[in-house]
Structure formats: C-alpha cells, structure tokens
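We were asked to recover a plausible sequence for a given structure. The inputs and outputs are reproduced exactly as logged, with field labels preserved.

PROBLEM: sequence recovery
POSITIONS: 462
GIVEN STRUCTURE:
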C-alpha cells in the first residue's frame, strides 16, 4: 500500500495512556463533539508498523453521517463523518461496522475528498455487508418529521442533523422496508426491493408532506437505482463480512480500536430520551455494532470536554446563555462539524458525567479542550441538581425533570493561559490541575490524558 498518508507523530500515547492488553473503545461522555476524532487519530497515528504497542484496526460501530469527527495534523484539518479516524495512518485497516447506517452519497463524497488529500482509500477501508443504507427518502422523512413536530408544538422536535439517521434505524427495526449494504450488490434484487419500498414510502410521506404544507415528488425506484449505481461501484471493493474479518484478526492477535460516534448522553437507551440519536453510542454499542464480544474490550477511554456542549434540542441544565457561554463558543470554535450549527455551551455537568462514566464503564478519561477555559476568573462544575425542593444526585431519566432542575454548582479558581504548550501534567497551572482532579473524583475514573489543543502533539499524559 503506498505510504502517502500522514505519518505518525513522535509521541507514543498507547503506552503513555497505560492501556491494558486487549482492545480499546473511545466514547463520548457528553452530548457529542468531545474530541473523539482527535483521541482516535492520536492512538491510530501512534500505531507504526514497528511500534511495540499498536492498534491494527479502527472500527466504527454506530451512528452514521450525523457524526463529525475533526482530526488535525499540523495545520491540516480533516472532517470525517462515516470513515473512521484511523484513515490517516496507512498501517491500519478502517472498518465501518454493521451497526453503522451508511449514506452512499456521503461515503463516496468522503472517499473522494480524502483522495484529493492524497490519502489512500483502498484495502484499508472495509464496509460491513450487514450495515443499513440511508437513502433519499430517509433524509426527507427526517426533515418532514422535524417540521411537523415544530408545526404542532411550535418548537424544534429533536433538532436532528437531517442525515436520515432515525428513519433508517427505524426501517432496520421494521425490517420490511430496510435495505442493507449486501442488497446493493445484486442489481435485480435491489430494483425489486426499491420498487416495493418506494410504494410504501410514497404512501407514507405524501400525507406527511401535506401536513407540513410541502410539495411532494414521489420517489421513483429506477431513478433511485440509477443514482445509486455509480456509488455502489465505488463501494463494492470495500464491502465484506467485517465481523468475520475482525474475528480472524482477533485470532491472529490483532488489536482493535473502536471509535464511538455521537455520545453516551445521546444513546438511544441511556441518553436524554427522546432528545437522543437512534443508536447505542455508549461503549455498550460496540458489541452488537461490530460483532465483537464485550469481554475482549478491556479499555474504555471516555472523552470529556472540559465544559458542556450540546447541538439540537433537549434539556441541558448547565447551559450558559450569557457572555461566558458566548466566550466559550468563540474560543472553542463550538460550531457543528456536520451542520455548522452553533453549539450550546455551559459549565461541566458532573452529575451527568458520573452517570455516563458508569454507563460506558470507562477505565480512563481523556479531558479535552481544557485550553478553552484559560483566563476565566472562576470555573463552575455542577455536582448535584435541585428539583422541586429536593436535592438530586442521580441523573434523572425523565427529560421533563431534567429540564426543570437547577444545577448546584461548586466553584473552583480559574487558571491563566495559554496552556497549549504544556506536555506534562506538572507543567499545567496548579488551578488547572485541581480542576482536572475534581473532574476525576466526579467521574470516579482516572484522568489519563488532558488535551490542550486540536493537534495530536497537544496532549498531556499522566
Ligand atoms: P468529535 O465529534 O468528538 O470528534 O469532536 P468534533 O471534532 O466534532 O469537535 C471537537 C473540536 O475540538 C474539533 O474542532 C477539534 O479539532 C477540536 N479539539 C479537539 N481537542 C481540542 C483541544 O484540546 N483544544 C482545542 N482548542 N480544540 C480541540
Ligand atoms: P459526534 O460523533 C453532536 C445530535 C443532534 C440531535 C440528536 C439527534 O460528532 O460527536 P440525529 O441526526 O442523530 O437523529 O440527531 O443528536 N447529534 C450530535 N450532536 N455530535 C454528534 O456526533 C451528534 N450526532 C447526533 O444534534 O440533537
Ligand atoms: Mg463532532
């Protein structure tokens, strides 16, 4: 394989993180955009073929093009949505697992963008034949449902990314209207499936469009097929039974790095339902979404932004709608990687963090974007909630309760910046170290890494 891809950095984070033998999952512990892409790229980038400790595969197991993972190497930034963040290292194989929903248009666009950057996308990219396919009617249904709920309730429903994620996972559960990647490989069979499914979709979507006051153009199976054909040809060489591939790799003693998309508070089962996405984005999704049994995953790195952000609707108890919130947004460049939407910003929510660290069973925590909090006079962290005169220390299941709680804050002294040059824990200002140690107590898990800038090298290991 040509070695035109970006070469690894000098740091050896796998050893520095003190990972146990076995596989590792990297998952978000908030509402997404914690910097998972940076952490995965950093671990993947350190996986030189001759390194003593290395990963051999990076595996996406959930979500779809709703994810936006930024990777920065030097001054070059990459935004990845469906392709795993290990693609910058030519020594690794990147796997899009069965739990991912794949929009062929987006996938092929991403492959082409990477090729423009001279990044190899060949046998280092494998796509599961069991993954489900996102098609144009899913994206329309996503948009119309959001519009319909907004019309009925006068507010945005979930504030989805509009990538057709919910409707595609719904079809997966329904089965009779689903298309999997394997179905793309036989044209006659695909046309027959599309012919049946578009009739059902047209019958369902026309009245929904009417409700929204939108014109509706019925989906035509032949047109859909013609649009898909060139995309399928790009995908074809990458498609395989990825679970079998990973089982074989395990037998050969290979090490797998799982890249969570979205985050634990957006998990369909454990997140702030209904303001969540439609997959298991916590570490619990790894096993079903990749076909790798849980006991092989001995390391779970929970990625936590030093403050809280959220895109879209739903409760966010520590949201700051003031100058501090705006300052964090501007300094942290808190605008969506996928949709460009401004992210809601607030103080770190320690109640949510304790909960998500437990749900994902983290073995270590990576705190990111700590540099963004520099030069604030004080830092606050929610340590409990107040609800109807009662103190809550557990994260509530009911979104209405979560909307009504008042955070109980602990105030810590701020620290002076810049800190982006720090590479060792003791080089961080004492107040920054105290803040990290407090988060560690709240999460009840060790902080193994602190990120002080978007680049691979801007990382402090403990
Ligand atoms: P992901 O979805 O979890 O991969 O996160 P995103 O890529 O959507 O958002 C994280 C953003 O923060 C990206 O723009 C990263 O380049 C950037 N980033 C990651 N770590 C740091 C850090 O420690 N400091 C700063 N300033 N930016 C960071
Ligand atoms: P990464 O992987 C931030 C949010 C959306 C919306 C809700 C449901 O970059 O961290 P969906 O389109 O999935 O049906 O939207 O989930 N959301 C994310 N927010 N980062 C993400 O991914 C997200 N993926 C989904 O904003 O509120
Ligand atoms: Mg993101």
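RECOVERED SEQUENCE:
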């Amino acid at each position: 394989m040509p070695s035109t891809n970006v070469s690894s950095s000098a740091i050896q984070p796998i050893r520095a993180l003190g990972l146990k033998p076995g596989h590792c999952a990297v998952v978000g512990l908030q509402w997404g955009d914690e910097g998972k892409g940076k952490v995965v790229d950093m671990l993947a980038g350190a996986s030189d073929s001759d390194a003593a400790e290395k990963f051999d595969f990076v595996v996406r197991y959930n979500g779809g093009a709703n994810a936006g993972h930024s990777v920065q190497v030097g001054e070059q930034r990459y935004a990845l949505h469906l392709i795993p963040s290990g693609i910058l290292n030519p020594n690794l194989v990147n796997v899009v697992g069965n739990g991912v929903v794949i929009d062929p248009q987006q996938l092929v666009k991403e492959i082409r963008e990477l090729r423009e950057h001279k990044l190899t996308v060949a046998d280092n990219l494998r796509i599961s034949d069991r993954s489900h396919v996102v098609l144009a009617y899913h994206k329309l249904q996503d948009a119309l449902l959001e519009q319909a709920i907004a019309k009925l309730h006068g507010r945005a429903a979930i504030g989805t990314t509009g990538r057709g994620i919910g409707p595609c996972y719904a079809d997966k559960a329904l089965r009779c209207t689903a298309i999997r990647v394997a179905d793309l490989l036989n044209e006659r069979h695909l046309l027959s499936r599309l012919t049946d499914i578009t009739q059902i979709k047209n019958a369902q979507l026309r009245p929904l469009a009417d409700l929204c006051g939108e014109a509706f153009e019925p989906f035509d199976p032949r047109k859909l097929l013609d649009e898909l054909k060139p995309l399928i040809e790009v995908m074809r060489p990458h498609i395989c039974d990825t679970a079998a591939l990973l089982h074989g790799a395990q037998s050969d003693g290979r090490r797998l790095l799982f890249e969570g998309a979205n985050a634990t508070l957006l998990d369909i089962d454990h997140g702030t339902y209904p303001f969540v996405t439609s997959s298991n984005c916590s570490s619990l999704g790894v096993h079903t979404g990749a076909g790798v049994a849980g006991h092989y995953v001995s390391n779970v790195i929970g990625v936590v932004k030093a403050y809280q952000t959220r895109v879209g609707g739903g409760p966010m108890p520590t949201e700051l709608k003031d100058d501090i919130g705006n300052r964090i947004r501007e300094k942290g460049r808190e605008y969506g990687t996928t949709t460009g939407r401004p992210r809601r910003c607030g103080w770190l929510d320690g109640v949510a963090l304790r909960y998500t660290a437990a749900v994902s069973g983290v073995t270590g925590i990576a705190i990111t974007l700590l540099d963004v909090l520099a030069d604030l006079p004080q830092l606050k962290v929610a340590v409990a909630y107040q609800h109807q005169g009662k103190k809550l220390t557990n994260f509530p299941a009911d979104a209405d309760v979560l909307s009504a709680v008042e955070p109980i804050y602990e105030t810590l002294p701020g620290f002076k910046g810049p800190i982006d040059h720090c590479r060792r824990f003791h080089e961080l200002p004492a107040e920054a170290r105290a803040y990290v140690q407090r988060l560690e107590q709240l999460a009840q898990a060790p902080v193994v890494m602190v990120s002080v800038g978007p680049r691979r090298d801007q990382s402090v290991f403990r």
